[in-house]
Design brief:
The protein has an 8-stranded parallel beta barrel with strand order 1-2-3-4-5-6-7-8, surrounded by 7 helices. The longest helix has 24 residues. It is of the alpha/beta class. Helix 14 links the parallel strand 7 and strand 8. It has 16 helices and 8 strands. The chain has one domain: Alpha-Beta Barrel (TIM Barrel), CATH 3.20.20.220. It is globular and about 65 Å long. The chain starts with 7 loop residues before the first helix and ends with a helix. Bound molecules: flavin-adenine dinucleotide. The site of flavin-adenine dinucleotide has 26 residues, from strand 4, helix 12 and strand 7.
């Protein structure tokens, strides 16, 4: 059956009364763009002045959007949602580290997450960002096709080795790896490296997934080309579809530097390409695995309906729906309730290190029209239903 996204009893079954009220407070606060923007600026200032804001962030944004500070904490959260048939994507959310030492340290951290995931039942994925293993400036240089020095070539080889170690561990343990998409001006080396990993590890099933940002006007074609390449080279494509998280940054940079924006002209064009990309993937499930990463109810419903109409088993191992932990539970839990495979992105890490992620969530919940309003009204509806 098609899911009903307004069923709040199913959506919030894992949340206690106290957690629901906390969520109401959080989303009410974020519903004011002015308050959120002031909050973000003040947080950045307080952090730069080394003021002790950690406790405030921890008890507000962090507790709602993150699984915990350690993998063990995240595993406990994963077990809670697992009781309701929801899978977890372990996301070691540390960002902004920029040293060879940090990049090297990330490898065992990810391998530990993979091994932990393999020991349980409901953690089929981990996710990673290539910028967690490589200097942003190096990726930017490779993207621009500028010649690398000997040292830079050696550094790039080390990045390859780090990612290869993680993907090999994932392949050995049958855990899937989602490689996040980032800014368009570093995406070429990210795509190239991910393609290499897919060619190496995606036989007979997709272990490594690349991410396609459909807010870019060139990505639907790139997805189709990636499928053709995979087919020719005899491996399965892992296709994670998202709309894209860096729209304002992308547009501003393009305007500043005077090149045409890589972003679609409007939201409708993004939506159209997103749904077309889902259709394309559904039509080619023989050669790929599909990961639908979105909080858009219409896109999720269209995808769910497509599967029902074409008799694609809703619990096929080849299609996953995914939302971020702390958002759109009405989509995740109701899809899962109808038997579709669902996985929640569950970031974890020291509070200070996941702040960029939390700031994006705060911003997104303010700037995306309707998002906060919808979350808030669903939370209020459930609070009323429970009579608390
Ligand atoms: C599980 C998961 C994994 C994710 N992984 C990544 C990742 O690896 N990389 C990444 O970049 N993002 C990632 N995101 C974030 C994602 O790209 C979106 O920013 C976010 O999910 C909002 O889009 P939506 O489809 O959920 O919802 P919607 O609210 O329907 O769409 C909002 C999105 O539409 C696009 N948009 C809005 N206005 C316009 C406009 N005027 N013109 C053109 N496009 C517009 C933007 O992309 C905006 O974020 C992920 C999201 C999820 C749920």
């Amino acid at each position: 059956m098609l899911p009903e996204f307004d069923n709040t009893e199913v959506a919030f079954q894992y949340r206690s009364n106290k957690e629901l009220k906390h969520a109401r407070f959080l989303f009410s606060s974020m519903s004011s763009p002015m308050l959120t923007n002031i909050g973000i600026k003040m947080t950045k200032l307080a952090l730069s002045m080394h003021l002790p804001v950690k406790a405030i962030i921890k008890s507000t944004l962090f507790d709602h959007f993150c699984g915990g500070e350690t993998m063990e904490d995240a595993a406990k959260t994963a077990a809670v949602i697992g009781k309701y048939g929801i899978n977890t994507i372990l996301d070691y959310g540390v960002e902004g580290k920029e040293s060879e030492e940090d990049f090297d340290k990330a490898v065992p951290e990810f391998i530990k997450a993979i091994q932990y995931a393999a020991s349980g039942k409901n953690i089929p994925f981990i996710s990673l960002k290539i910028t967690g293993f490589a200097y942003f400036s190096l990726l930017e240089k490779i993207h621009s096709a500028a010649p690398l020095t000997k040292d830079e070539e050696a550094a790039w080889q080390r990045v390859y080795n780090r990612i290869d170690q993680v993907c090999k561990a994932a392949s050995d343990n049958n855990i899937m790896v989602l490689v996040d998409a980032e800014e368009s001006w570093i995406q070429l080396p990210v795509d190239d490296l991910t393609d290499k990993m897919m060619a190496r590890y995606n036989k007979p099933k997709a272990i490594v997934f690349n991410t396609f940002q459909l807010y870019r006007h060139d990505r639907l074609v790139f997805l189709q080309q990636s499928y053709e390449t995979a087919k020719k080279q005899g491996y399965q494509l892992g296709a994670k579809l998202v709309r894209g998280a860096y729209m304002e940054k992308e547009r501003n940079r393009a305007a500043e530097k005077g090149y045409p924006s890589p972003i679609q002209p409007n939201k409708e064009a993004t939506d159209k390409d997103y749904d077309e990309a889902v259709h394309f993937c559904m039509q080619h499930l023989d050669g790929l695995s599909l990961f639908i990463g979105t909080h858009n109810e219409t896109s999720c419903l269209k995808a769910a309906k497509y599967m029902l109409d074409r008799n694609i088993p809703v619990n096929t191992e080849k299609v996953f729906f995914s939302q971020l932990y702390g958002m759109s539970d009405n989509i995740s839990f109701n899809l899962s309730h109808e038997g579709y495979h669902v996985a929640k992105y569950l970031p974890y890490g020291p509070v200070n290190d996941v702040i960029p992620y939390l700031m994006r969530r705060a911003q997104e919940n303010t700037s995306v029209a309707g998002q906060t309003g919808r979350e808030l009204s669903l939370i209020k509806k459930e609070i009323k239903r429970r009579g608390i």
